[in-house]
Amino acid sequence: MTTMAADEPSSIQTRPSLLHRLKTGDHSESWQEFYRIYGKLARDFALQAGLTDTEADEVVQETAIAMAKHLPEYDYNPKVCRFKTWLLNQTSWRIKDQLKKRRRNEGLVAEPLASSRDDTTRTSADKRVADAAADLDSLFEKKWRQQLLATALERVKVRFTLKQFQMFDLTAYKEWSADEVGRSLGVSVANVYVTKHRFAAALRKEIARLERLT
Q1: Distance CA 187, CA 169 (A)
Q2: Neighbours of 114 (CB within 10 A)
Q3: Mean per-residue pLDDT for 181-203?
Q4: How distant is the alpha carbon of residue 172 from its chain centre?
């Protein structure tokens, strides 16, 4: 079974070493790593807030630029200000800037004799964007939790065999019964229950560990 090294960086864990390298000028590989870890999160967040692909790409770039500018004054201390909160604020401000830019551009190109249907369509689109933008905190939290769970699952998988992971996956996510899993994988029902419990406990522990770090 393919495994991941125990010390391989996760896709959501805030790593003080990465932030330190960025703050001290080790930018080339460090920023590539930053984009890999947090770029997709920021981009998905922007898309879910109602932005286009192009606008979302600009949010990622502008967020990175803003964070580079403010990194020297950022003190990594989860007890004082969690990195997640700081990243949320930086990304949210960039998203709101894009929404303002969109409205300005739409105002410049709007035709004075636009049909009522066009007005209705534009109003509906503006409302969807405004509704999404008004709830950025919960949108970001949802995306963060999704990636947190995916990262924890990835890291816990390497501690179990492939068959053990299949037992957990089939019962917890595919909603198969223990009898069905046992027959399919050739294991006892008791084994299915025990493995599911052990895997779930390990997953909860890993999620809690990652939450403390972010």
Answers
A1: 15
A2: 11
A3: 97
A4: 22
